[in-house]
Fold:
Amino acid sequence: MKQLTRIISMSLVAVAACFTASCSAPSGYDGYMTRPYEIRGQHYQPLSVNEALTYDETGIASWYNESSFFGLKRGNTSLGEKVMPWHIIAAHKTLPLPCRVKVTNLDNGKSLKMRVNDRGPFIEGRIIDVSPRAAKKLGFKKQGLSTARVEVLSVGDGSYKKKRPRKKFLFFF
Structure:
């Protein structure tokens, strides 16, 4: 009886560990992805790390869902990471991957920090695609599109991470 209880408890621990690992945010890519690429005959040259650290742009944001089968099957990003609709991630055409950005919905003032780990949107006039959960938190999931400001906070993960320089304020002038 004790052995059966031990086997059941070990099985429950293993299942819980697998479940919580699959619910965590994607990560694990070291370095930067800045190599050029081509989509539908259009050539894209990602920004250098130093150029990206000063990136600040306003334009149209949209949302996309990389997963399939009603959100139950994980999708893959350009970094090869597995993602689900509840992850707070984004796609950008020319920022180095991965990077962290702050997206502000200019229609309602809501903002959210997220990880850019995919390429897109490949529709003229759009500057960023966000995950369904990010779009809901930013308040434009029902509309599908919104005017947004995108600011880069940092580029890279782990030991490769570089942060945007802080703005200096002069209080005595």
Confidence is low (pLDDT under 50) at residues 17-28. Residues 105 and 148 are 5 Å apart (CA to CA).
